[in-house]
Amino acid sequence: MILIIDFGSQFNQLIARRVRECRVYCQVEPPDITIDRIRALNPEGIILSGGPGSIYEENSPKADAAMFGLGIPVLGICYGMQYMVDALGGRVKSASKREYGFAALNIKKDLGIFKGVVKQTACWMSHGDSVEKLPGGFVITAWTKNTRIAAMANFRKRWYGLQFHPEVQHTPKGKRMIQNFLFDVCDCSRSWTMKSFAMDAVSEIRETVKDKRVVLGLSGGVDSSVTALLLHKAISENLVCIFVDNGLLRKDERDRLKQTLSEKLDINIRFVNAGGKFLKALADVTDPEKKRKIIGKVFMDVFEAEAKKIEGAEFLAQGTLYPDVIESQSAFGGPTSVIKSHHNVGGLPKKMKLKLVEPLKYLFKDEVRNLGKTLGLHEDLIWRQPFPGPGLAVRIIGDITRRRLRILREVDVILLQEIKQSGYYRKLWQSFAVLLPLKSVGIMGDKRTYENIAAIRAVTSSDAMTADWAKLPHDLLGRISNRIINEVKGVNRVVYDISSKPPSTIEWE
Ligand code: XMP
């Protein structure tokens, strides 16, 4: 495995992605990781990430320099290179202005991580400080017009430093450099597969949980479903899943889950019918944040009451993914401003005094899908578009009533049928309908109608942080609109949402 020490760069997840793409397992750890823990992880190499700090600043992150005594290769990127220089006796120069963007890289020695890379290539710079004096045993291996020491190496010790970012796409040969580090310098093998991950995860779960029972909140999404499958493989009937039907789900959601997980795979699921409770608490509530808070609270109460009934439960499993973990442990913390309250992130365990099991916490989303495939999860579940915890409540603008829920469910069914049939479903991050709190005049047969408006939202995205409205073909949009107006009683107008995120968000509330 490769250990990545995270000095807080915005690109640290990308480094991990690049290494995993080479089928080498890696883990991102904070700078205060102890040398004993590093020894225990037994990495084949260490990558020191970039970061926003300046090495001589008082609070800039530092790692334990004892790592240079382990006899393993180290690659320092940007701030990571400067940390290396400082730790090994060289000198860094503070710069008054940042160098940001493309630079032409001139390679002096095509050895080590530059092996097989053309002598002149582009690289992506994003730094203020730069290296002024090399530590002993190092040579300059590349330069740019503005940066005399753009790369350095101590070939004997297998220590490398890059002032630029090989992990970003703007460094076209960056991938090759990372591959060289992994396979030529560290001698890693391409052995990271989902099958081996699943086997390790299963034995780790067994070791942690022993004969105790584990509770898992099942939402029907890919993350909690894959978590369920993995736990089921490890501890079979000692896994008890709770599925809370909050009355805000799409049509037939509960039955679909029943068919794929409990009937086919024999996973123990307790279905709790709590729709009445949720709807009662939401009566006359129109404020989006209030809706989210109420749903979060009722969910917690219902879940806790059900979990209490499970005898011998000592663990709570969650489908937390790696991006959340990296974000929350990053040296400089993640973004803090709350745009919307996501009730299903955190919150649950503290109150319930259960120990956490998070078997997916080292995986990225596409790896989770891959794992699901390896474990035999149904295609429909693997490729399911994300669905928000508060469900249709945040897609019904204004009052949530049974009638409005019925209308939106019917609209949603038609929309998804058409999107799936057109082959667009997997190309879109999400596609859904929103019911507006407005009515408009129409004409049907010879009669005047005064009915609801449905908005269609379809977006492309890779991580939901940013999203673009999907340029769906007009005839597909036409078909969707026609069918909805003709088949759903209570809707006489359909509009298409053409806003991107930012400045809009994906969900309307
Ligand atoms: P926004 O609307 O903030 O949504 O652009 C970003 C992504 O998050 C989903 N979403 C949620 N997911 N619980 C969730 O699990 C929630 O409360 C929640 N709210 C929004 C949304 O569907 C989109 O994919």
List keywords for this structure.
509 residues, alpha/beta, Rossmann fold, GMP Synthetase, Chain A, domain 3, 3 domains, binds xanthosine-5'-monophosphate
Secondary structure layout plus pairing:
Elements lengths: L1 E4 L6 H10 L4 E4 L5 H7 L3 E4 L25 E4 L1 H9 L3 E3 L5 E9 L12 E8 L2 E4 L5 E5 L7 E4 L4 E4 L11 H12 L8 H16 L3 E5 L4 H14 L3 E7 L7 H11 L5 E5 L1 H8 L5 H21 L4 E5 L4 H8 L18 H5 L2 E3 L7 H10 L4 H4 L19 H20 L8 E15 L2 E14 L7 E2 L4 H14 L3 E6 L13
Parallel strand pairs: 1-2, 1-3, 3-4, 4-11, 12-13, 12-15, 13-14, 15-16, 18-20
Antiparallel strand pairs: 5-8, 6-7, 6-9, 9-10, 10-11, 17-18, 18-19
Helix pairs in contact: 5-6, 5-12, 6-12, 8-9, 14-15
Structure description:
The protein has 509 residues and is an alpha/beta fold. It has three domains: 2-185, 3-Layer(aba) Sandwich (Rossmann fold), CATH 3.40.50.880; 194-382, HUPs (Rossmann fold, 3-Layer(aba) Sandwich), CATH 3.40.50; 395-496, GMP Synthetase, Chain A, domain 3 (2-Layer Sandwich). Helix content is 33%, strand content 23%. It has 15 helices and 20 strands. It has helices spanning 12-21, 35-41, 79-87, 174-185, 194-209, 222-235, 253-263, 275-282, 288-308, 322-329, 348-352, 365-374, 379-382, 402-421, 474-487; strands at residues 2-5, 26-29, 45-48, 74-77, 91-93, 99-107, 120-127, 130-133, 139-143, 151-154, 159-162, 213-217, 239-245, 269-273, 313-317, 355-357, 430-444, 447-460, 468-469, 491-496. Strands 2-1-3-4-11-10-9-6-7 form a nine-stranded mixed beta sheet, sandwiched between helices. Strands 14-13-12-15-16 form a five-stranded parallel beta sheet, with helices on both faces. Strands 17, 18, 19 and 20 form a four-stranded mixed beta sheet that branches. Strand 1, helix 1 and strand 2 (26-29) form a beta-alpha-beta unit. Helix 5 packs across helix 6 (222-235). It is globular. The model is unreliable at 331-337 (pLDDT under 50). The structure holds xanthosine-5'-monophosphate. Xanthosine-5'-monophosphate binds next to loops.
